[in-house]
Specification:
Layout lengths: L29 E3 L2 E3 L5 E4 L2 H4 L8 H11 L11 H14 L3 E5 L2 H16 L3 E5 L21 E3 L4 H8 L5 E6 L8 H14 L3 E5 L19 E4 L10 E5 L18 H14 L3 H24 L3 E6 L2 E6 L2 H13 L2 E2 L5 E2 L7 H18 L10 H12 L9 H11 L3
Parallel strand pairs: 3-13, 5-6, 5-7, 7-8, 8-9
Antiparallel strand pairs: 1-2, 2-3, 4-10, 9-10, 11-12, 12-14
Helix pairs in contact: 2-7, 3-7, 5-6, 8-10, 9-10
């Protein structure tokens, strides 16, 4: 069945969403747990999960019931404060820490707000940045390693560039970083923390993507952020983002509000989801299921001679393809088998990945491997493959040995992407 999405021409934006080979948005009419149903009645396994937001799976009963109660006016009102808001703030402080906590509707809005607040508190103009921070033009840089019109310097996770800028700490208001645990290892975080502490420059951890996904709270103990932001795993797809941290640095947030601040359905979804994420059990379940899928997939590709590896672990992982041609063929074959992946980026299983779902996914990936077997004889993963994959997932450079000259050459090749 072909769905007419011509009305989409009225939409001014081009939202990020799964698309077919012709660039048309894929259409799904129903979601249940780990499965999506398209207009033809075909069931897909969802590894995208709204780029990781649907952490508990589609149509989670507990979240749905909480939202329904709130929509009927039984869990606070949009007009004023409610006990649900008190509960959410307390949960966030307990799980993520911080002197104060604030709420927003998107991680992008939250990050801009706290970055401006920290810059005002510090009375310094330069923001050092690495990672994807959303759609806000504030973060768009025409060139790496130099300030844009907003005073943002993109250092692309390169610690040598970071050290150069931190040698002038009197200019730097903060370092904003989106943690990545697929392409950055413990050494990177240890050195990053040493550099920022020696320069006495506060760190803003943009954990919109990874916060709560790996464990109850922020994603790693190796960072000591003055300010944090979480969003995607907070409300099982409802629009809620949270910030927290040092009260002095976030003093300007006292003036921040918006009409839907007390919107009860979003708060209900967040309190219900966070209550479960705070136990750490969902993260453990996702890790076990994802690790099983990764091990099976890696073996299937090796057995079929397919030049694809996987980075990360079961909580969040990425396919690393030898080149663009291999990547395109892989995603086409995966779509034929009803495997919905976030193309060129990270894959985010949900707690709905039961043993039965994993077994189904492994059977489908076997068919993908069989389809690709023999098509790319002689192709191999190279350093370029790993750098290109990291660039696609985190808008920066993987933590791999290189000289400054090699860094410059790699950035020149990848920057236009």
């Amino acid at each position: 069945m072909t769905i007419d999405i011509g009305a989409g021409k009225l939409l001014a934006q081009e939202p990020t969403c799964p698309r077919d080979a012709d660039g048309r948005p894929r259409v799904f009419i129903e979601g249940s747990g780990a499965y999506l149903t398209d207009p033809d009645g075909r069931r897909w396994i969802d590894f995208d999960n709204a780029r990781g937001s649907v952490i508990l799976g589609h149509g989670d009963e507990e979240v749905a019931e909480a939202i329904a109660r709130a929509a009927r006016g039984r869990s606070g009102v949009g007009t004023a404060w409610s006990p649900v808001l008190d509960s959410l703030l307390g949960q966030l402080q307990e799980v993520c820490g911080g002197d104060v906590v604030g709420l927003y509707r998107t991680g992008t809005a939250a990050l801009r707000s706290v970055t401006c607040a920290v810059r005002d508190a510090r009375e310094r103009s330069i923001i050092l940045s690495s990672g994807y921070h959303g759609y806000d033009p504030m973060w768009h840089c025409d060139e790496p390693f130099a300030p844009n019109q907003h005073g943002v310097v993109e250092f692309l996770f390169d610690l040598d560039v970071l050290a150069e800028w931190l040698s002038r700490p009197e200019q730097v208001a903060a370092v904003v970083v989106s943690p990545d645990h697929m392409h950055l290892g413990e050494r990177w975080y240890t050195e990053f923390t040493r550099l920022t502490k020696e320069a006495d420059v506060p760190v803003i951890a943009d954990e919109v993507k990874v916060g709560l996904r790996y464990r109850a709270g922020l994603s790693t103990h190796l960072l000591d952020p003055a300010v944090w932001i979480v969003a995607k795993c907070l409300a099982n797809g409802s629009p809620v983002a949270a910030v927290g941290g040092d009260a002095h640095l976030l003093a300007a947030l006292e003036d921040v509000s918006f009409t839907s601040y007390f919107e009860p359905t979003a708060l209900a979804a967040a309190t219900t989801t966070l209550r479960r994420m705070a136990t750490g059990q969902p993260q453990q379940a996702i890790r076990a299921a994802g690790d099983r899928f990764i091990a099976h997939t890696r073996a299937a590709f090796v057995g079929a001679g397919v030049p694809i590896d996987l980075a990360g672990n079961g909580n969040l992982f990425q396919f690393v393809c030898a080149d663009d041609e291999v990547q395109d063929a892989f995603h086409a074959a995966a779509a034929d088998e009803g495997l919905l992946f976030f193309e060129g980026d990270n894959q985010t299983p949900s707690t709905a990945f039961t043993d039965e779902v994993v077994e189904d996914a492994c059977g489908r990936i076997d068919q993908v491997a069989a389809t690709l077997a023999g098509l790319f004889t002689g192709r191999e993963l190279t350093e370029e493959s790993w750098y290109a994959s990291a660039w696609g997932a985190m808008d920066g450079l993987a933590d791999r040995p290189r000289t400054r000259e090699e860094t410059t050459a790699i950035v020149e090749r990848l920057w236009e992407d």
